Amino acid sequence: MKFHKKTALALLLAGALVPAYGAVGPSALENSAAETFSPAETGGQSPASWGAWLQQQIQQHPDIIAAKEAVNARLSMAEGKNKRLYNPELATEFEQEGADDNFSLGINQTLDWWDKRSVRMRQGDYERQAAGQEYKLLLQQKTAEVLHSLIQWQSVNSLAELARSQEAQLNTLLSLVEQRQASGDLSQVDAELAYLSLSQKLNTTAQAQAQLKQAEADLRQLLPGWSVTGGQIPESLWTVGNIDGQANLDKHPAILSAKARWQVLKQQAAIAQLETKADPTLGISAGKSGGDDVVALSFSMPLNINNDYSDQARAANLEAAAAEALYRGAIRKQQFSLQASQAVFLEYQKKYQRWLDVMQGRAERTSRLLAALWQSGDISTSEYLLALQQRSEGLQAGIELRTAYQGAKIDWLLQTGEIDLAIKQLAAAR
Questions:
Q1: Candidate from 24-33, 196-205, 416-425 with smallest mean pLDDT
Q2: Quick one: which of 167, 205, 215, 247 is 20 to 30 A from 337 by CA?
Q3: pLDDT confidence tier of residue 1, bands split at 50, 70 and 90
């Protein structure tokens, strides 16, 4: 099949023949141009085993272990608020009065007259809720961080594979140029152009490899059990979650933790108000005085005259009001964050799907066409190199769109507060 030189170039520059993937052609040039840009494999792991593996890896991260211990500390503090407010006091007295030795032994107990303990118990319940939701939020954020790192590695790995493939293609092209130059078919200019293109691609390949090594190091820091052959994101993750459904933000850990913190301070304000009321202390003692047995009862009550603690109560109320405002703000922020992440995800999803549709079936045809046009002399070496560059940009655009689409999906799952449920669904799948 014969193409007019200008017609073929117009099609190539318009992008109609820029492929998504390379293809295996009959010539050495086409074989060197063969590239793979396929969905990530999981190294033989099923989505269920991958999901369970990822959960285990995240649970072993130092940040998560530290968060667990911090939560346990807060739970212990909250548990302490279930106990009685005042401990009994042991009181003794000894004196010598003439020949008599006088002594007494007694016990005093301050009474929780205003039932401050029940308020503290409610506060402890809210502190447990806050600690649990803050831990859940941190776990979701760490999961999103890990998934973003995996997505970034897949992107950098694809770019590195693309760069290596194009370097090999240019090496093959250079050999063919030298052969055709020796036979008088091409000029020295063609060879120089091939050399220049190869020198540029060597730099691109080196940068891509460096970025790949850095991405792998970052991943191993997050996931000690990660390897190149396994632990990659399964494609089934991108089908989890209903983007058109209504997310229940009332269960989002950021909102629930903000609400729990507000309730904690609200109970603290109630406690501060009760502190303005004094609790009485009762005591009973027994002993001897002047040779006689003595039994005594005592009563004491603080008099809040110099300080009635009203300022502290007012400050606690203001702190509770501030926490309520932060809670309302968290709801508003999460609503808009969810709307934005949903819009971004839908846009990238649409463009990425469009890219896949446009590129479908064009890979093999374009690879063979480019090689055939150059070898037949219908396009010059400079034009062929320009087409290869545009082909490279088309492939890179696909990789970038895929990365943005997958990253937007992770962001959307994080904003819905269900990213951990998505991983659990994979782990539970059979």
A1: 24-33
A2: 215
A3: very low
Scanning 360-380, the segments in alpha helix (DSSP H) are: 363-375
pLDDT band at 48 (very low <50, low <70, confident <90, very high): confident
Distance from C-alpha of 247 to C-alpha of 230, rounded to nearest angstrom: 32
Tokens found for residue 76:
């212990």
CA dihedral (138, 144, 150, 151) in degrees, to 10, reads: -160
Whether this prediction's pTM lies above 0.85 is answered by no
- CB under 8 Å to 386, separation ≥6 — which residues? 13
Evaluate whether 370 touches 391 at the Cβ level (below 8 Å).
yes
Give the SS3 label for residue 324: helix
The answer to whether residues 275 and 313 touch, using CB atoms and an 8 Å cutoff, is yes
First-to-last C-alpha distance (Å) of the chain: 51
The mean per-residue pLDDT over the stretch 400-407 comes to: 95
Residue extents of the structural domains in the chain? 5-84+125-260+330-428
Tell me the CATH number for domain 5-84+125-260+330-428.
1.20.1600.10
**Per-residue pLDDT reduced to its tens digit, 287-339:** 988 778 899 999 999 998 889 999 999 999 999 999 999 999 999 999 999 99
Q: Phi, psi (5° rounding) for residue 102?
A: -100, 140
Output the six-digit token pair for 209: 């490899």
What six digits make up the tokens of 91?
Answer: 């009181």
Amino acid at 312: Q
Compute the distance between CA of residue 380 and CA of residue 374 in angstroms, rounded to an integer. 6
